[in-house]
């Protein structure tokens, strides 16, 4: 176990806000602890500052919160086996949309090329297809 660190009041304030931004409020939807005004968020912010005053590191405080609330306390989830779909599905959807757009462009180009021929060329083409 690491020896307690001695932070200045300014460091405590900065680190406390930084940690509160990285952790999700358990009671609010899509809000981090810093932005939330829920009673539990206020309790957790107080806990963060208390632990910083006790000299605990940022990592130790985050680990404490994860142990208490689970991985979902992270505002931005870490990439691991259980969260990989959160990262892979959006990338796959963007790639799928790009492929679809390229296919649409190619289809439109082919149609435009067929229509650009002169009326005589179109008649000759039609006659060849009827023979």
Tell me what the structure shows.
Possible subunit of a heme lyase. The chain crosses the membrane at residues 85-103. Keywords: Cytochrome c-type biogenesis, Heme, Iron, Membrane, Metal-binding, Signal, Transmembrane, Transmembrane helix. InterPro entries: C-type_cytochrome_biogenesis, CcmH/CycL/Ccl2/NrfF_N, CcmH/CycL/NrfF/Ccl2_sf. The structure is a single chain. It contains 5 helices and no strands. It has helices spanning 9-22, 39-53, 58-69, 84-115, 119-130. The radius of gyration is 29 Å and the shape is rod-shaped. The model has no long low-confidence stretch (mean pLDDT 85).
Number of helices: 5
Residue windows where pLDDT falls under 50 for at least 5 positions: none
Oligomer: single chain
Order of helices and strands: HHHHH
* Mean pLDDT level: 85
Known CATH architecture of the largest domain: Orthogonal Bundle
Percent of residues in β-strands: under 5%
In short:
With 131 residues, the protein is mainly alpha-helical. It has helices at 9-22, 39-53, 58-69, 84-115, 119-130. It has two domains: 9-73, Helicase, Ruva Protein, domain 3, CATH 1.10.8; 84-130.
Primary descriptors:
Helicase, Ruva Protein, domain 3, 2 domains, mainly alpha
Secondary structure layout plus pairing:
Elements: H1 9-22, H2 39-53, H3 58-69, H4 84-115, H5 119-130
Helix pairs in contact: 1-2
């Amino acid at each position: 176990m690491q020896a307690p660190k001695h932070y200045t009041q300014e460091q405590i304030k900065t680190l406390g806000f930084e940690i509160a931004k990285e952790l999700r409020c358990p009671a609010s939807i899509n809000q981090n602890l810093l932005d939330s005004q829920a009673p539990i968020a206020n309790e957790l912010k107080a806990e963060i500052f208390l632990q910083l005053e006790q000299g605990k590191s940022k990592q130790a405080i985050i680990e404490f919160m994860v142990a208490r609330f689970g991985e979902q306390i992270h505002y931005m989830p870490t990439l691991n086996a259980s969260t990989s779909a959160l990262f892979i599905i959006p990338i796959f959807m963007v790639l799928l949309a790009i492929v679809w757009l390229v296919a649409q462009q190619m289809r439109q180009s082919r149609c435009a090329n067929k229509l650009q021929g002169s009326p005589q060329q179109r008649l000759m083409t039609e006659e060849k297809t009827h023979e």
